[in-house]
């Protein structure tokens, strides 16, 4: 990462860790120490005079936009509020802060790593590598099938998931846990229609996917039905929580959420006449490759990047160049295009729909 992003990653991660710890302080006694430890990390970053000195000062700041107290935050990060009025992590924390997560206690023992969800202590690449390490020793085909399975089945009835994996000759890649209580109501749960992970249910009866671009927002009725809000996809059916399991939040956020776009794009391109598309070829050298039928060379190679902040995405790609020829952003990030092209001059950048149209045109051209 470039210096400014690395510099911001530490206080942002510390703020998210402290916010999460504060949200579970009643159930987890370790939480108090974690908030104190993260206050120290933020103090070291901001320096004397401008930093919160006590955990309660830090908690007060976590209810305000980051830009108020963290200088150098880009506009998207600057508006991020970590805790809501009920001391719960906001949806934006899941959408935005994940782009910045890093180790804050590298080189020393990190007591938080034992109990904090991994997306608050590890970078996305680490969560991904751990999930797929078993697949890397197999064939390219095994890798692609295994990874696709995980993205398409982040939750479900335990027996059914096992049967499906057996049918595909897959060994379980990650552990599935029972559906957490705050994602259940009267023994039922609802999958987000986009990512298929259990939606969160608030005490006031709102049922939502915490990744906002999925626009999955519903209201629970007395008869245990859920009604879609304006612009939400049609309501999914309720499923029994008895014997139902799901992957943990880190796998959902770092593998399933981006994977949904990667697979959607792959499947659209693969249906074009005269070409075939490969998903995660070369064990994820890039996300999608397209060839003309009968040819070995790639016609188009794509990497999908789903970041809430164009500045964070540009810094990431500058630090770790992508192997694909085109960087693709999801259609719901089309507003980022102009800024990304400015920040990454010379890079070929397109939205999902643009690259679909371009590939469709290329596939029809004479060679
Ligand atoms: Zn979702």
TrEMBL record:
InterPro entries: pPIWI_RE_REase (IPR040828), pPIWI_RE_Y (IPR041191). Residues 11-156 form the pPIWI-RE three-gene island domain. It comes from the Bacteria. Pfam families: pPIWI_RE_REase, pPIWI_RE_Y. Residues 259-362 form the REase associating with pPIWI RE domain. This is REase associating with pPIWI RE domain-containing protein. The lineage of its organism: Bacteria, Bacillati, Actinomycetota, Actinomycetes, Streptosporangiales.
């Amino acid at each position: 990462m470039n210096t400014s992003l690395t510099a911001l990653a530490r206080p942002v991660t510390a703020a998210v860790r402290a916010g999460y710890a504060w949200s579970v302080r009643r159930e987890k006694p370790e939480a108090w120490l974690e908030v104190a430890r993260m206050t120290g990390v933020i103090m070291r970053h901001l320096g004397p005079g401008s930093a919160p000195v006590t955990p309660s000062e830090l908690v007060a700041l976590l209810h305000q936009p980051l830009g108020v107290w963290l200088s150098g935050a880009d506009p998207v990060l600057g508006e991020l509020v970590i805790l809501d009025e009920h001391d719960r992590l906001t949806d934006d924390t899941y959408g935005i802060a994940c782009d910045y997560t890093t180790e804050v206690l590298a080189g020393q023992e990190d007591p938080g790593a034992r109990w904090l969800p991994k997306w608050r202590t590890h970078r996305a690449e680490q969560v991904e590598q751990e999930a797929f390490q078993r697949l890397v020793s197999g064939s390219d085909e095994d890798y692609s099938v295994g990874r696709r399975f995980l993205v398409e089945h982040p939750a479900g009835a335990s027996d059914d998931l096992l049967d499906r994996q057996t049918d595909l000759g897959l060994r379980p890649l990650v552990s599935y846990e029972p559906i957490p209580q705050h994602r259940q109501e009267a023994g039922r749960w609802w999958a987000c229609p986009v990512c298929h992970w259990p939606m969160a249910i608030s005490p006031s009866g709102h049922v939502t996917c915490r990744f906002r671009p999925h626009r999955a927002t519903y209201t629970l009725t007395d008869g245990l039905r859920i009604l879609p809000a304006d612009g939400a996809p049609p309501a999914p059916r309720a499923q029994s929580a008895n014997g139902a399991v799901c992957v943990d939040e880190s796998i959902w956020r770092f593998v399933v959420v981006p994977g949904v776009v990667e697979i959607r794009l792959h499947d659209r391109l693969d249906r074009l006449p005269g070409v075939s598309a490969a998903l995660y070829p070369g064990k994820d050298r890039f996300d999608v490759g397209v060839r003309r039928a009968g040819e070995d060379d790639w016609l188009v190679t794509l990497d999908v990047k789903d970041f809430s902040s164009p500045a964070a995405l540009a810094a990431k790609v500058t630090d770790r160049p992508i192997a694909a020829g085109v960087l693709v952003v999801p259609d719901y990030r089309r507003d980022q295009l102009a800024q990304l092209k400015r920040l990454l001059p010379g890079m070929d950048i397109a939205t999902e729909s643009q690259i679909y149209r371009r590939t469709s045109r290329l596939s029809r051209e004479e060679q």
